[in-house]
Amino acid sequence: MNAASLAPLAVVLPILGAALTFALNRNPVAQRMVSIGLLALTLLLEFWLLAAVWTTGTSSVTLGGWLPPFGVVMVVDQFSSLMLVVSSVVSLAVLVYATGQGMADGDQEAPVSIFHPTYLILVAGVSNAFLTGDLFNLYVGFEILLTASYVLMTLGGTGPRIRAGVTYVVVSVVSSVLFLIAIAMIYGATGTITMADLAVKLAELDPSTRNLLHVMLLVAFGIKAAVFPLSFWLPDSYPTAPAPVTAVFAGLLTKVGVYAMVRTETLLFPGDTLNTPLMVVALLTMVVGILGALAQSDIKRLLSFTLVSHIGYMVFGLAMSSVTGLAAAVFYVAHHITVQTSLFLVTGLIERRGGSSSMDRLGGLAKLSPMLALLFFVPAMNLAGIPPFSGFLGKVGLLQAGMELGTPLAITLVVGGVLTSLLTLLAIARVWNRAFWRKPDDAEYPDPVLKDTTAVGLLPRTMVGSTAALVVFGVALTVFAGPLFQLAGNSAEQMLDRTAYIHSVLGEDATVPGIAAPGGANQGSSPGGAHSGPSLQGGAK
Amino acid sequence: MSVNLTLLLVMGVLYACGIYLILERSLTRVLLGLVLLANATNLLILATGGYAGLAPLFSKGTDSGDYNDPLPQALILTSIVISFAVTAFMLGIIYRTWALARQDDIQDDAEDRRVAKTPSFDAEDDAEVPQETSEFPLAAVAAGHVPGDPEATGEPPLNDDEGGGPQ
């Protein structure tokens, strides 16, 4: 029995929970206990998976008795298990927050009985997308999480949510169709959809065909990840959803797209054929996104724009296709999932305390609710990349990778990255100044709830507690940045090497093709052990 | 691998109509466009399976090349189920839009329109910075500046800002 044989449980447990909570919809208390309990169990399982993969290396499991090139496989390597752990921590915190909000609100606006099953299905879809080693199964994972997200996005069916939901559903369906077309073409060209097998067979294709397939996949994932020219749906649709829903979407959904892009770039199409366009896209995503954020006066919309902008950092690391760049990107994904989610959760709290999330209506929150100010300040500084925090460490890794590459475009990216970081600080500082620092009377249209000092009970302990837990987790990522960076470095090395992944799926005697670019020379290196940090130079140049 | 020309042509027409329809503003048409796109993609997947052959049920003495490729059909089945669910959900949304607003069109995002109309001048950010920024007028005197009358202006520049800034 290898580590991966328990991996399907990460998908099965949440689905089981969805069925149970659906059956228990008359009994909210039991529903809450089941969903939180099962998600906690999943989290424990995923910690175990991470530990197992750390010691024994990449492993895979075949489902349904069909052997690898035909059946569906699930592969657990360091990158996917890290993503699983971080995503489950975040989704558990958001679930606790959401139950707190549901209990406090008395379930008026949203039919909360449907929330638990849908939320668990979303988590199952995310886990499936992280674990799968089959391109079509990845599509299915995307569809599971997207269908659940359609329901969560339009929860309650109010006017603004339906309006935002339409944009979201149509854009997501179109991107799924594009992904499906890409899968069909890849199957037509190679006759397989198992990713490890594709890694071998795509290398034998004509370069022009390969580039076409590559671009199609990247466009499909680019829409899901909200990379610049394909990102306009995001700030339009996210802010209207209920606070916990927006938080989990911002943390997880775009990162699943980024995860798929990373897999495409490293496993299926290694080499640097599309690195230049990716770098340009990364630069534009960072800069355009943050300029959009500066124009907003609503905190949720501002955060949605910073979300788009910081996706650019991950694409930046990916486009370097060196161990340093990829390791920094992996680290940044883990950091950003946590921080962005905590910021959206805090915004939900601000909305409760201040009555609004518009900065024109807020003021003086630092004095009215110091706890809230602290909860906002820590992840906000983390997002902007102020030195002690993990955001700073991730960005330094990226800048280092950019300087190592040293081409004019890479230097431009480094400059763009620093600029974006400063502009993020500016955007965050404006939120701080207007919502927290000035007097409540200075607000343009102060919200009546704001100065109501009897409203202390507006912040239930569960909500504040789960937000605080997530903020602490974000700080823990900073404290344990050393081991985490090592983990990120190992996974980057394994992803660029590909041997461990392909061997674990296709067996030890499968040939690992060299990189298509001239001078691909990492044929014989060992299936990466846990021995070195991100300082190792990349093998895929 | 060779493919059926009729199927390809039908697929092309479905894609063309689907893309035309999703560019419309009416939600029902958008939904029809999505359905057409999904079906065109199903035909594309079918085409990747090659020529139609025998049903892929094992029988002795049949050459492996005579069977149809079963995998694309399994994929199509999955994608039909998924597009069915999404279509049902979209219909629900369309009905809800009709119930709420009595219209079938996609509506603008009000906040987005508002931000787009906001002038680039921001009263708080772009207000003129007052000359005297020191809170210690004596230091300013020592530096040779004429101090503003502290009694007249009352408090430090922050309040000045508000009074003087464009309303």
3D structure, described in words:
The complex is a heterodimer of chains A (541) and B (167). With 541 residues, chain A is mainly α. Chain A has one domain (3-506). Helix content of chain A is 71%, strand content 1%. Chain A has 20 helices and 2 strands. Chain A has a two-stranded antiparallel sheet. In chain A, α1 (9-23) packs antiparallel against α4 and α3 runs antiparallel to α4. The model of chain A is unreliable at 516-541 (pLDDT under 50). Chain B has 7 helices and no strands. The longest helix of chain B has 32 residues, at 70-101. Helices cover 59% and strands 0% of the residues of chain B. Chain B starts with a helix and ends with a helix. Chain B is elongated and about 105 Å long. Chain B folds into 2 domains: 5-52 and 68-107, Helix Hairpins (Orthogonal Bundle), CATH 1.10.287.3510; 123-161, no CATH class. Chain B is mainly α. Classes of the chains: A mainly alpha (541), B mainly alpha (167). Chain A binds chain B through residues 70, 136, 139-140, 143, 147, 150-151, 154, 157, 159-160, 162-167, 169-170, 173-174, 176-177, 180-181, 183-185, 187-188, 193, 235-236, 239, 295-298, 301, 434, 442, and chain B through 1, 22, 27, 30, 34, 37-38, 41, 44-45, 47-48, 71-72, 75, 78-79, 82, 85-86, 89-90, 93, 96-97, 100-101, 106-107, 109-112, 115, 118, 124, 162.
What's the topology here?
The complex is a heterodimer of chains A (541) and B (167).
Chain A: H1 9-23, H2 28-56, E1 59-62, E2 73-76, H3 78-105, H4 112-131, H5 135-153, H6 159-190, H7 195-202, H8 207-225, H9 233-237, H10 243-268, H11 275-294, H12 299-320, H13 323-354, H14 365-368, H15 370-384, H16 390-405, H17 408-437, H18 461-479, H19 481-497, H20 499-506
Chain B: H1 5-22, H2 27-48, H3 70-101, H4 110-117, H5 137-142, H6 150-153, H7 157-164
Helix pairs in contact in B: 1-2, 2-3
